[in-house]
Amino acid sequence: MSFTKSPEDNNPVKIPGQTVNFIIAIVGGLLGIVAFFLPWIGFSSGGGLLGSLSGLKIGAGPVVALSKGAVIFRGTPTSYLVPIAGMVTLLVVFLAYRRKIIVEKDGFWLIALGALPLLVLLGQFGEAQRDAAKVGVDIHYLSGLIATFLALLLIILSGTLTTAALARQKPSFRNTLGAYGFMSPTSLLVIIFFLIPVVLLFILSLTNLSSANFGDPWTFIGLGNYRRMFSDKFFPKILRNTVFYVVMTLAFFNVGLALALALLTSHINRRSSFFFRLIWLLPRITPSVVYIVMWKRFTQVPPYGIINQFLGWAGIQHQPYWLNETPWLFVILVNGFVGASFGMIIFTSAIEAIPKDFIIAAKVDGASSWQIIKDITLPLLRWPLLFVTTYQTLSLLVSFEYILLLTEGGPGLFTTEVWSLTAYKRALFTYFGSNQWAYGAAWGFVLVVIGAILSFIYLRVFRFDDLVQEPKIDVL
Amino acid sequence: MSKRNILIVLFVGILLALIAACSSATPEVITIVETKEVEVIKTVEVEKEVKVYETVEVEKEVKVYETVEVEKEGSVQEVKLVARCKASPPYENGRCDNLVKAVGAVNAELAANGDNRRVALEAIQDDASWGDYKTEFELASDAGEAPDIIVSGHEHIGDWATAGFLYDITNEVGKYPEFADVIDSLWTATKLNGSIWGVPQDAEARPMYYSKPLLRQLGWSDEDINNLSDRVASGDFTFQDMLDTAAEAVAKGVVEPGDGWWHRPSNGPDFLYYYYGAGGEVVDPNGSNALVFDKTAALKVYSMLYDAAQVRDIIRPNKLDGDWDFHKEYTSKFDKVLFVFEGTWRWASWHTNYLQDVGGEDYLWENVGFAPIPANEEGTDAPITLTHPLVYMISSQSKNPDLALLLISKATTKELNTDYAVASGHLGVLKSQADYPPYKTAKFLSATLPLLQYTTFLPNSPYWSSYSEAYYLGIQAVESGDLTPEEAVDVVVDQLQNELGDNIIIQ
Amino acid sequence: MTPTTFETEQTYGLRKSLSRAIPYILLTISILPIIIGYAWIFIATFSVRTEGLIPKDAHGNIGGLTLQNWSFLHNPEVWNATLNSFGIAVGMVVGVGFLSSLTGYALARMNFAGRKGFLGTTLLLHAFRPEMLLIAIFQVLLFIGGIPLIGDWVGFNTVGGVALVMITLDLPLGVWLMKGFFDNLSWDMERAALIDGASRFRVWWEIILPQIKPGLAALSIFTFITGWNAYLIPFTFTIGSKVANLPVLLNRFSGDTSLGSWNEVAALGLFQLVPILVFFIFTQEALLNIYGGGSKGGA
Lengths: 476, 507, 299
Hints:
The structure holds 3 protein chains of 3 kinds. By secondary structure, chain B is an alpha/beta fold. Helix content of chain B is 42%, strand content 16%. Chain B has 3 domains: 31-73, no CATH class; 78-196 and 390-456, D-Maltodextrin-Binding Protein, domain 2; 208-388 and 461-506, D-Maltodextrin-Binding Protein, domain 2. Chain C folds into 2 domains: 18-66, no CATH class; 76-287, MetI-like fold. Chain C has helices at 3-45, 76-109, 115-125, 130-146, 150-154, 159-183, 188-195, 200-211, 213-228, 232-236, 246-253, 262-287, and strands at residues 49-51, 54-56. A two-stranded antiparallel ribbon of chain C has the order 1-2. Chain C starts with a helix and ends in a 12-residue tail after the last helix.
């Protein structure tokens, strides 16, 4: 890598490899169009190349049967996107060529354009195959296989060429490229399995998808689910519960106790601190089913209950079913004992990382332990505090597993029911298993919006921008 | 690399892709291991076979079982079916195992009919929770990868038939003689919109169990105790009598407050029979798809439960805490709770898990009696129970629904079904089982079989789940004392209308 | 030395050791409920029934100890499930560790458009529980599954698809933690290597990764716990639980239709706990490094 700034080449038309991109885009576009007609020329078959076309069985239903086994495309509503995408690609390529609007970024555009019809095409195969399977038809996609190979090949080839060309053209591009290279696997996964599902979740909340119409195309019902949610009689109660639960657990356990534990364990010798932390980690790693039964046994009536057994030994007669007596106390305890370990570990390691000289200097000056904590440790814990608070707020907002197992939102009527539990119950958890996906999605989505607003506020209050360390690349 | 080279590479790539695609799609030699029972004449079919492993088990006769690896070709066509079951191992494994055992009979019949297809079955069986299991089938169906046969609670027909996931067998049930043996009333549970969507696999009853020692402590004579079952069956001993007895037991200190009578600790099919018993209807008599909520009947149920939990200390106000582990252990010995509403399958779980060191099943026979759920004086005034049959259903995606159904029919025999029933503590589904010795000798099964005559069912409806959640909400509310019965009815009606809209009829 | 001074020193020493003892006392009180609870679980797995902490036999006397609850150890299915659990957990540790350190490195060391946006987004993504996203992720898997070739590996009802989903859901936390570690690594060696002309990837692989081992170990434990206890995703996205791991088995034992008893559940639960404990003991030191430090870190 050269560190002297090379003069930028200001003649963008001469990017090597550009022609190849053109070709690829054109091939992609043409292929998109051709692929649409492949079935008619006998390419989608159930067997070998052309010979075993007769092996395909034709079914009724959404898949329209054509002669010679061409089953795909016709039945799928979005299939017309394929040739359209192909044509658009060709059009853009043509325009670009005519007007010579070729700048650095064109390489990427062209890849995208070439890949677009192919990608849509790929989706089509899946759709057609599913529809076919629903009516009991088995289809192998020869053309699908080819298209997949081609798409991958084209994308990789075109991408490599373009980037190589750009890198040669403009050295500083290398750095950006490197960064994107490092980011791409995670970004790709996060986009595919996280961001897209999140968007889908919102779209889903506008439909009426449930167990009873799961196989059908989605029907959009506007904001009906949201209306239904806000008109639920127990909505205010659930909201109150959620706020109470999150604030109490967060303040007393996930941040408060976690901090206390971290401070305490860092003031004792290493071996003992190791032991205490190990014990505190137990609740987190215990299977929830077992952990919850343990708590139920704590609170159970005599002769089973452990608390009551101790009370009995102490000679106290009042021995109720404690979980029912003080449900909130136990909901918060149960979650808090699990939640505290996360903050504890983060805080402990943050405390460990404080340079020893600070502390020694303070001790030399005669500061007491408490003064050291107050004046040195805590201010240095600002960032981990922000992180744990934000992270655990979101965690608590959406956590319901332990409440579900402990009280199912009871005892009685929504006593300890929190928002995420309602969302889960609506979407997935009913005794008779009718999942109201869309309605549950509405509950879930609003919750997440609240979480987003909260974390935004946190980040503003704690001045997130200041806290995110600038990358060291700029040194170069 | 010059541009031309790149293009060459590109086209070679395409060519390779083409070749690869074609070659992978050429007909493969599929080898299937088939277990065949063949009279051996050593000269047979040597020209076709690839390999012959012989696991020669020479039995008394000159019969030889040989495992032949046959190359698939024209004369016999192997059809693979997939069955999906949920079962608590090992007792309930018969759900799928019976299908596996029926494969031989199916293939024999196919051979006899000159049909060249042969069934090979893949059974997937585990013990997921019902909710996860149901979700899995829905996702699989939407993905086009549904199993051919699925065993599940009959109430799922409501959702699945509506969603188009099931194969309608109405016109085909008659073709299989085995199905004529199925107890007629059980077919009710397989119907939706006049069509039949499944074949009953098992049944059970949900009786009232009572503790003999506790009744004795209450001052009942042995004769009174032995007669109780008959008195319930005749409608003489009613639900109200049961509550009074339980209240008396609490008052006299025979049981702790709240331990007079227990029902299950979480939602389930059981709660519907209170409503039925109080005279409520769920299915619209006018034949619409909507469900009916009868406010009077519901009010009766809610008032009764409110009294029991809040006023008379018969049942704990927090009984619906979902704690099954505690519930099972606490009720097992019948020395703490007087009356328990439970399922027939609990019998086995009680004595195998909690009573081994006090005498096992004998302990239960000695100390526990059972009867149908007593009649509600203020309602129908007839004893009642509820059965929740599991059914074999065929996916609409199955390519061989006829074979799937044939397989089910061969698994619906008194031999196989009795094996399953005896092992799992479920009731049989066939008329012929009543006289079938292995069934009759199973003491508990034959003792509970008469309960089926009082039985009712859940409705098959896509709206049932929401309905049930709302109805259960009311039960939770009155037992915990959060709402009075009247308020509860209002809240439930409100909830039902919010959730179901036009699909609920409030009476 | 006058008596007074002596006394003062003594009081001072006493006070000092008292203040030393305070953390121990407080910590011991804090872990009491956990100790008692786990003691009960432990006792329960060796008893027929318990009342409070005391095992009881059929006649209400102390006793009734049994090994029956642990008989599942003879069951090959359990060992198979243990193996599956282990496979999933290790897969996740490797996958999440690799991807997070790749991304964390870029976030800590390189400047590119969308850097802060990415950090903010990933934190927020944490608010979406897998349970909520289940159906949406299913639709995505379905689409991928329909693509020939690729779909056979990472679509619905494939082990690959399940693995990718599980790894992705754990990435936000991993990326944030790893970024914190990289922020606190010394820049000198790396810079020297870069000036010598090494590629970024090589620097990352040969110079940075060895230094980040403690961080990886710390992240590993969180990931390992998630993977080891995974239930929902592997169960729902494969038909007929292709990957029956320990949580799936545990789920069989509890619940209203289960014929097993609670004490067996507890035994299986403890069994499931052991490997994580062992894992934790080995990574404990590293775990303390999870937050790299510095006044303005970036955990």
